[in-house]
Specification:
Blueprint: H1 23-33, H2 41-52, H3 62-74, E1 78-82, E2 86-93, E3 98-104, E4 123-125, E5 132-134, H4 141-157, E6 164-171, H5 179-185, H6 188-191, E7 197-208, E8 212-214, E9 217-220, E10 222-231, E11 235-236, H7 246-257, H8 259-264, E12 272-280, E13 286-287, E14 290-299, H9 302-323, E15 330-337, E16 340-342, H10 346-358, E17 362-364, H11 376-381, E18 385-393, H12 414-430
Parallel strand pairs: 3-6, 3-7, 7-18, 8-17
Antiparallel strand pairs: 1-2, 2-6, 4-5, 8-18, 9-16, 10-14, 10-15, 11-13, 12-14
Length: about 425
Amino acid sequence: MASTSNNRPTPASTPKPTAQPTAKQICACAKRVLSNLDATQAEREALYKEFHNHPELAFLEEWTSQRIFDDLTSAHIEVVRIGKTGLVARIKNGDGPCVCMRADIDGLPVKEASGKPYASTFTMTDPASGAVVPMTHACGHDFHIMSLLSALHAFAAHKDAWHGTFMGVFQPAEEVGQGALSLIREGLCTQFEKPDVYLGQHVMPTLPSGCVATKVGPFFSAAYSIRITLHGKGSHGSMPELGIDPVVLAASVIMRLQTIVSREMPSDERVVLTIGSVSAGSKANIIPDTAVLLLNTRTYNAQLEKRLFAAIERIVRAECDAAGCTQPPDIEYFDRGPLTSNDAQTTPRVQEAFAAYFGEHALLGEPQSVSEDFSYIPDEWGCPYTFWTLGGFADVAHAPANHSPFFTPDLQPTLNCGVSAVVVAASAWLAS
């Protein structure tokens, strides 16, 4: 029997679908919203240098968060705190779609060696170790901050060009893969309306400056770190027959793990298995009790990831059995980075907007082996997302990698291209 509940929505309460803006309308909107780009350039460059000179560790971005908050409130843009250092800004401009853009805000404990006149000399005390560490934005999060901050100012200044809601999420702690999850725990996805699309970008050395690129489907890899503890049996170095040497065992495990990608994974799939750390022993004449390996994996396919993990565990356990270990190995998975796989409906919409506005500087993206925590939030919200990359260096052939001490992208055109990409992508929904 059909329900007769009075809570059933009436036709009047059902939002009407909005027509998708044409390429001409998107470009017209973006050009109007970005019409002050030249006039604000000096001010934006100065603010960028402030952020560049105050990079902060994950979850400790207190100066950064306050500077963003002050900048937005001075422009009368609604902004609320979420968690300790997260921020959500929102501009409501009548009825229409809701577009949300994310920017990560944390820095890295790396000493900058870019040689730029505005290079970071900032230091922080790492609460985990108590050590004073040099800091820099060696992954370009200062550009991400400025791109979103500048887009919010631009949309606020030109409300006649668009309609709907534009939201900005300033997310902490991307570098440790926990920032997006922390905002979810703090209620981001329950306190704020679900957007029609969630957008994100990352400055990269793999594109020429002034270019943007995206693609449908897997774009940034899924990542996992794995800690493997091998349990041998300690002994004097002169009496190896009385022990089980975990150093030799670790060597066997390492060599055998190298065959997984080349011999067990499909040749047309991108899979990365890296052994980044090996630690065992403290003295030349002591066979230690244990050896510890730290692994990192990158995949673009959930089923293939399961196969990869199964192969790792099979090999590790088999090598331990072969060595005569009396205690099984400990295998611990941590620091997960989810797959970033761009939505098949929204991503072509962004690509078409980029092509119309940027012309030949809008490129088809290639899968990247780096990872992000970006997709946690749209997955929790249940909304589609599109992520793109932004070129950071004119000399791509000699561009340093993200996290390098030399990674400080060219100030221009990167700064202007970053805000332009945000405005153009959002205009694919918000253009009047």
